[in-house]
Write a structure and sequence with these properties.
alpha+beta, single chain, 16 strands
C-alpha cells in the first residue's frame, strides 16, 4: 500500500545556451534511429515524435520533465524508449493488439526494459529506480535514462541528509551535519559534476516509498511527473535512505528538437482512476481533494524564450470524453497560468474517473510558435 505523504515542489534550474542537435549514429539490433538522432527500442506503437512538419499520417497520437526553465530561474513541475510503427498493417482487426479499431495497447509494466545503466556499479536502489523510470520512458517513446556516478553520489548524499535530520526538503542547511550544498545544483557541483551552460538540473524528493514505488508516486502527480516526461535527458542519479527518496536529473536546455509527449499515452491500459492532489505541493487542484488521474503534455524545442514559459506553450482547447461521448469536467492549465509548469500543460478531471472505461483526451496547443492537436485514447484499470 502506498503511504500518503506530501511531495514538495519539484525543483529545477536551467543555464541557457543553445545546444547542438544529437549527431546521427548507428543503432543496435532491436532499435531504430529517429529524427532526433537517438536510438529507440522498436517494440511498436505510437510514442513521442519530433513534430517537424514531415510526419507520417499518425499525427493524432504523440506523447510528459525536468521542468525546462529560463536562465537561472527556479521552476517546478514535477523529472524511454520508443515510438515505432503500428504493427496492425494489413492484418484483420481482431488480430491487432488493440482490437477492432487497430489501436496498439500499452501498459507500464509491459514497456519495462533497461539495458544501459550508464556505468558499471550503481547501487541496487539506483538500478531499481532507473529500471522503473525506463518503464515509463519506454512507454512514452522516449530515450531511456541512464545514471551517472557523480549524480548518484550527490543524490544519495541528499537522501542521507533527509534521513539524518528526519525531514523532507530540497534544501540543506550549512550548519547541519551531512551538508553537501544548498540546492541540487550546488550538491552536484560540490560532488564534482560540472554545471555547464546548455544544461538544466532538477530534483524530486519523497518520503514513504522504496525506489520503484517512489517513481510510481512521482508519475502519479502533476508537477513531479515533469522530469520523467521531459523528452530529452542527459543523465540522472538516485538516492535512498530508509523511506527517504531523492532523484536528480540533468537535461539539455533548450531541451531539443520540437517534440510533444502526452501521458497517459495513446493506447495505454490499466491507467489509475484518481489522484489525491492534496499530497502534492503546490496543490494542482487546491479546491479539490481526490481528483481524476492527471493528463499531461510536455514539450521541447530547440530554442527558448526563457522565463516561466520557455517554449511559449499555450493550451488553446482541451477536452476529455468517455467512451459514450460524455465530456468530463477538467481543470486545465499551462505555463502562462502556472509558473511551476514550465514545459508542461495539464488536464485534471475534477472527480475520479470510472474504472474499466476508455477515455479520449484532446489538447490543442501552441508552442514554439506552431499549433498542434494532440490526442490520446486510454483505458482505466478495472
Amino acid at each position: 500500500m502506498r503511504i500518503p505523504t506530501l511531495l514538495p515542489l519539484f525543483l529545477s534550474v536551467a543555464c541557457g545556451t543553445a545546444t547542438d542537435d544529437a549527431e546521427p549514429r548507428d543503432c543496435d539490433d532491436g532499435y531504430v534511429l529517429q529524427a532526433d538522432g537517438y536510438c529507440y527500442a522498436d517494440f511498436g506503437g505510437d510514442g513521442a515524435r519530433p513534430l517537424d512538419g514531415d510526419d507520417d499520417e499518425n499525427e493524432g497520437s504523440d506523447q510528459d520533465d525536468s521542468s525546462g526553465s529560463g536562465d537561472n530561474s527556479d521552476n517546478s513541475g514535477n523529472g524511454d524508449s520508443d515510438p515505432g510503427t503500428d504493427p496492425g498493417n494489413d492484418t484483420d482487426s481482431e488480430d491487432r493488439p488493440g482490437g477492432s479499431d487497430g489501436r496498439t495497447v500499452f501498459t507500464v509494466d509491459g514497456a519495462c526494459g533497461t539495458t544501459d545503466y550508464g556505468y558499471g556499479s550503481p547501487s541496487a536502489d539506483a538500478r531499481e529506480a532507473l529500471e522503473r523510470t525506463n518503464c515509463f520512458r519506454n512507454l512514452m517513446g522516449l530515450e531511456p535514462g541512464i545514471l551517472h556516478p557523480v549524480v548518484d553520489d550527490a543524490t544519495q548524499s541528499h537522501a542521507d541528509y533527509m534521513y539524518r535530520h528526519d525531514t523532507i526538503t530540497h534544501y540543506q542547511e550549512s550548519s547541519k551535519a551531512g551538508y553537501t550544498g544548498d540546492a541540487v545544483w550546488d550538491r552536484l557541483e560540490s560532488a564534482g559534476y560540472p554545471l555547464e551552460a546548455g544544461n538544466s538540473w532538477a530534483e524530486v524528493v519523497a518520503y514513504g516509498y522504496g525506489p520503484a514505488d517512489a517513481v510510481d508516486g512521482w508519475m502519479e502527480t502533476v508537477y513531479h511527473r515533469i522530469p520523467y516526461t521531459t523528452p530529452y535527458w542527459t543523465e540522472a542519479g538516485y538516492g535512498q535512505n530508509g523511506l527517504y527518496s531523492s532523484m536528480s536529473f540533468v537535461s539539455p536546455y533548450p531541451n531539443g528538437p520540437r517534440t510533444a509527449v502526452i501521458y497517459p499515452v495513446d493506447g495505454q491500459q490499466d491507467v489509475p482512476v484518481d489522484f489525491d492532489s492534496d499530497i502534492e505541493w503546490p496543490d494542482p487542484a487546491p479546491s479539490h481533494g481526490v481528483v481524476g488521474y492527471p493528463i499531461t503534455l510536455t514539450v521541447a524545442a530547440n530554442s527558448s524564450s526563457g522565463g516561466d514559459n520557455p517554449y511559449n506553450l499555450y493550451v488553446l482547447d482541451a477536452t476529455l470524453v468517455d467512451e459514450s461521448g460524455r465530456e468530463i469536467d477538467c481543470i486545465v492549465s499551462d505555463p502562462d497560468d502556472d509558473e511551476y509548469l514550465s514545459n508542461t500543460a495539464f488536464m485534471l478531471p475534477t472527480s475520479p474517473m470510472s474504472r474499466g472505461t476508455t477515455y479520449t483526451a484532446t489538447m490543442v496547443v501552441e508552442w514554439d510558435g506552431t499549433e498542434e492537436t494532440i490526442t490520446a485514447t486510454f483505458t482505466t484499470a478495472s
